[in-house]
Amino acid sequence: MNELEALRARHSVRRYVDEPLSADKAQLLRAAIDALNAESGLSMQLVVEDPAAFKGSLLSYGMFKGVRNYVALVGPDGPDLDETCGYFGQRLVLFAQMAGLNTCWVGMKNFSRKAKCSIEAGQRLALIIAIGVGETQGRERKSKAIGKVSNATDKSPAWFTRGVEAALLAPTAMNQQRFFLELTDVPAADGRRVVRARSLGGPFSNVDLGIVRYNFEVAASIKNFTWGS
């Protein structure tokens, strides 16, 4: 399974098999997290065997069951943290899918009182990702039409349409899909097309934008475009 296949196969899973994460899978995840942290400047952390974190309100929120492991998305507090966590967190989510694991993004703000992770001065816990072996592979959810989230037309390059389709597969808070992708007319200096991505607001929409950006890149290929402001 490659990243594009993982992107299409992956769905949010809230109910997990009640068994420990294997040592091999934990080692794979930690190696991937270390590499992503080095690239991003984040301090993502894998927490294993902490079922108590999902007790109480978190257990009822989204009907979680059997969650024993999660990744805490921690990084330098600032205006870009949420989007950075979305972008690099999605890279980890797709890696986990390719490794045979299931995931679910969890954005409850009160999770910081329960998560067993290290948060240094100047850092913030943005959200967490539940991870493990799911009871099922999850299910597809409804998506908006391509024209609602982009300026794609039947004359748009195929790579742009593929990218928007992949963006619509990105998990977003409450399935709000409050983002917009615009293919601009003026090319970049290197000849590539310029694509703009923006959030339309709403809870965790900056995290969503980071996830959307990465999904778009996987399907559209960065050789075809560059991000514009």
Q: Report the helical percentage.
A: 25-40%
The number of E-state strands comes to 7
**Total of helices:** 7
**What is the CATH class name of the largest domain?**
Alpha Beta
CATH architecture classification of the largest domain: 3-Layer(aba) Sandwich
Tell me the span between the first and last alpha carbons: 33 Å
Number of domains: 2
**CATH third-tier fold name of the largest domain:** NADH Oxidase
What pattern of helices and strands is seen along the backbone?
HHEHEHEEHHEEHE
Fraction in beta strands: 15-25%
Rg computed from alpha carbons, rounded to a whole number of angstroms: 18 Å
3D shape: globular
Protein structure class: alpha+beta
Q: What is the mean pLDDT?
A: 93
The CATH homologous superfamily of the largest domain is termed: NADH Oxidase
Task: Describe this entry's structure for a reader.
This protein is of the alpha+beta class and 229 residues long. It folds into two domains: 3-132, NADH Oxidase (3-Layer(aba) Sandwich), CATH 3.40.109.10; 146-228, NADH Oxidase. 34% of the residues lie in helices and 18% in strands. It is built from seven helices and seven strands. It has helices spanning 3-9, 23-40, 57-60, 81-98, 146-149, 158-167, 205-220; strands at residues 45-47, 70-76, 102-106, 123-132, 179-183, 193-199, 225-228. The strands form two sheets. The chain has a four-stranded antiparallel sheet with strand order 1-2-4-3. Strands 5-6-7 form a three-stranded mixed sheet. Helix 7 links the parallel strand 6 and strand 7. Helix 2 (23-40) runs antiparallel to helix 4, helix 4 packs across helix 7 (205-220) and helix 6 (158-167) runs antiparallel to helix 7. The longest helix has 18 residues, at 23-40. It is globular and about 50 Å long. The two termini are 33 Å apart.
